[in-house]
Specification:
By secondary structure, the protein is mainly α. The protein is 58% helix and 0% strand. It is flat and about 70 Å long.
Length: 89
């Protein structure tokens, strides 16, 4: 009985960390990658530029612009207004 408890404990100690590293994210689809590229290009990144010196810097600047835009969008206050007004009956 004591040996089976030890075996169960050792099995649990080995399996729990392995399960913690399981990847739950799925790979991006082609459409998602294309949408991200369009978003980067709208932020000023040009993947076809002649990268004469600061290639990673231009990508990082575009990512910073996108992050700032998303932060501003998430910081909006109040409900969305659609421009209509409704009065009582």
């Amino acid at each position: 009985m004591n040996m089976s408890i030890k075996a169960a404990f050792v099995t649990a100690v080995v399996l729990v960390p392995a399960l913690a590293f399981a990847q739950t994210n799925v790979p991006l689809t082609r459409g998602q990658v294309r949408a991200q590229l369009v978003q980067l290009e709208n932020a000023g990144y040009n993947p076809l530029a002649d990268c004469s010196g600061d290639c990673p810097g231009s990508l990082q600047r575009a990512q910073a612009i996108i992050a700032q835009q998303e932060a501003n969008a998430n910081a909006a206050y109040g409900p969305a207004f659609n421009g209509t007004e409704q009065s009582g009956k």
